[in-house]
Amino acid sequence: MGFNEPDNAACANVQPGPAAVAWPGIVANARATMPGIKLASPAVMNLGSSWWLQQFFGAICPGGLARCSVAPDYLAVHIYTLDSGDFIGQLQEWNRQFPTLPIIVNEFACTTFGGAIPSQAQVNQFMNDVTTFMDDTPWVVKYAWFGAAANSFDLHGVAEANRLVDQSGTITAL
């Protein structure tokens, strides 16, 4: 997987140009170490940062992704929202912008990072709605709920109702 939230100062915090310069070396090293490995793109914070990926892909594959030797095999995305319709709309837009790349949603949860706090019932319904959509959508190939943290600090602002384990490490009903 590529850079984690390169558009976020608290994470990778790298501009598309320098990331694109580093990418061929990352790809070469990964393929030399693990022949046949499949690579995922850097995962930006949200759909509002698609500009980052547009610039990155333009720099690593100026002729387009289809014939590019260093193109990723998957588009990795993060989606955080309270609304399952918004979540699905964002996924559809990612697919519209990058139709040749199957999608891995490697972080998602029902949260706003400081806005409204969802109830457990809202989180449960959200999870059901969006996982059903992803399971039924062939261009979404993998997904991972963000919330497998026993320590609240490790949730990084994601609403507590999204926990997959409680503070003792016991699996929650979610």
TrEMBL record:
Gene3D superfamilies hit by this protein: Glycosidases
Protein name as catalogued: Asl1-like glycosyl hydrolase catalytic domain-containing protein
PANTHER family: ALKALI-SENSITIVE LINKAGE PROTEIN 1
Record InterPro entries: ASL1, Asl1_glyco_hydro_catalytic, GH
GO cellular component, as recorded: fungal-type cell wall
Residues passing through the membrane, by range: none
Organism: Tremella mesenterica (Jelly fungus)
Lineage: Eukaryota, Fungi, Dikarya, Basidiomycota, Agaricomycotina
Region forming the signal peptide: none
Domain of life: Eukaryota
Domain Asl1-like glycosyl hydrolase catalytic: start-end pairs: 1-174
Pfam families: Glyco_hydro_cc
GO biological process terms held by the UniProt record: fungal-type cell wall polysaccharide metabolic process
